Amino acid sequence: MSAPTFDLGNLHGGLRLPARKDKSTAQAIQHVPVPQQLVIPITQHVGNPAHPVVGIGERVLKGQLIAESGGPISAPVHASSSGKVVAIEPWPVSRRLGGNAPCIVIECDGEDSAVELSEAIVPFETFEQDILFQKILQGGIVGLGGAVFPTAQKLMHASITPLEHLVLNGVECEPYISCDDMLMREQADEILAGAQILMHALGVEHCFVAIESDKPEAIHAIAEEMAKLQDDRIVIKQVPTIYPSGAEDQLVQLVTNKEVPSGGLPTDVGCVVQNVATAAAVYRWICKGEPLISRVTTVTGDGIPAPMNVFARIGTTAADIVNFVGGYTENVRHLVIGGLMTGKSVTNDRIPLVKATNCILVLTGAERTGKEQPCIRCGDCASACPVQLLPQQLFWYACADNEAKLRSYGLMDCIECGCCDLVCPSHIPLTADFKMAKARMRELEDEVARAERARDRYVAHTERLEKEQLLREQQLDAQKQAARDAGPRAIADIIERSNKGDADGE
Amino acid sequence: MWNTVLTAVITITVIALVSGLILSWASSRLPADRDSLVEQVNKLLPQIQCAQCGYPGCRPYAAAVVEDNAAINLCPPGGEDTIRRMADLLGRDPIALADPDFESNSLAIINEAMCIGCTYCKDVCPVDAIVGARHFMHTVIASECTGCQLCVPRCPVDCISMESVT
Lengths: 506, 166
Fold this sequence. Notes:
- Chain A is α/β, with parallel strands linked by helices.
- Among the domains of chain A are: 125-324, Rossmann fold (3-Layer(aba) Sandwich); 369-506, Orthogonal Bundle (Fumarate Reductase Iron-sulfur Protein, Chain B, domain 2), CATH 1.10.1060.
- Helix content of chain A is 37%, strand content 17%.
- In chain A, helix 3 runs parallel beside helix 5 (216-229) and helix 10 (391-400) packs across helix 13.
- Chain A is globular and about 110 Å long.
- By secondary structure, chain B is mainly α.
- In chain B, the strands form two sheets. A two-stranded antiparallel sheet of chain B has the order 1-4.
- In chain B, strand 2 and strand 3 form a beta hairpin.
- The longest helix of chain B has 28 residues, at 2-29.
């Protein structure tokens, strides 16, 4: 058994936040029963939406493919239980931009009968790299840490760069969320088996399992499982409990002491980061044939009488899950999907659990921030920023809409962690402003790209017209030349013929 | 004392004269790079190619602005932003937009049931975003349409409409 290691890199800024995880980790993960209705969005990942492959009225089985991958960056979607497809329609979902998204609605029959496995399960070591990537793609597996980037595509992209480490992210730094903690405590075997599959797929020889120091039970469970496994390629790294040490780039810096370059990816410093839950999902798909149709999520907050972690099917509505854990308390004020810092407040509990949902947070408290006041340039935000940006300057330029300055001050590197909001004594919603400014900049980039394409097409159009004109002139010249070569006699003949024709016509 | 003053005046006069001569020679021998300036102005234009400025496209307008001193307020899709940027680049005064009534951010839609396949719209499209053959239905490549509206008046059966995409 390898001992936890402490040789770590430095993380700039960050905050020590109250964890508030003790209540939800007090009891084991509970299984939510099959609900009456499942609402499964076709877009649960970054990239192109999946294409539905089932019709309304069709009976589907648990684990059946209901929407196939719809582009170079996309992931398929599977039915989470058996039943009948009753609708494919827009439904309220929790997304960054909010609003409705197309969902496949399944009326469950309660039998929960699964599809038969099409191929026999074979040891993953026998798979070639490419075949393993294809397999992972078919399982609909996406990053379960919250970014939901399709795992297969992340691995494929990573496998063409020189790699040193696979980093399993068991750092759950946001307050309230404890689903990865509970998963590590209860399913350490699946996580480590998943890590072995991922290492085989990527051809890397080192794996770090990064866990925060305030999760001794999880560290113990993983260490115990490692002792059984006797795989010395896997090492536990204990990281300090500082928000946002679980953000991808920050974790790489902590664990390997290498900084991911601006605009780059962890692969630029030889690392691939996968969430522990993603590793477990890979194991369940490759070794048990169960696609990603359920996940662990934390139901917590002071608006829930008995906070806990539940294992629920993708597509179960938030209302069903909250009912299962015992309903809301009185005077509930906010329903947040995701954590306290990066989650999104929603107004409707009919929204479904998706692959990204790591937490359902119900709060009774008042608004988080006070009245907004002018910036006093104290610089607290700059010392808290984990990316070492200058939020006070960015705020200044965001107000002035100064795109060039925003870019040179690194707005695009902002990870939207919310640290600056929290330390700001003037209660300025900096992260919200930065999100807006980023969206505006992306829009502008799109416009410039469109203009450039239009310019190229205009140039091509003009060139084509000029070429056609030239060709016509050449043809005309050739005809004239031919007539001239034929001599005056030929022209007289033609005139005579035409006169004769006219006469005949009459 | 006067000697010192005289020396200073003469020295400075000579320096001014020599640099003046060099500069005048340079300005006549090495003309400003017109082409690259036209290209810079062209970059500021929105590339809709709508020809509402009175020139056949964005690049010809840019050339006219640089070479013939055309007004900088003739581009309705670019709006105030483009005028301000051109004024900055060329050192001219910003002026109000000449014709502010232009719905930018729109997309041409061909009512395909009505299209008679005359190819008129296809010929007039500045970015070749309309496809179709004679006597066959035409359609607009939505991702390439700049919303210039040039095709609308050319359609003999009025089957092209502009749709807002904001």
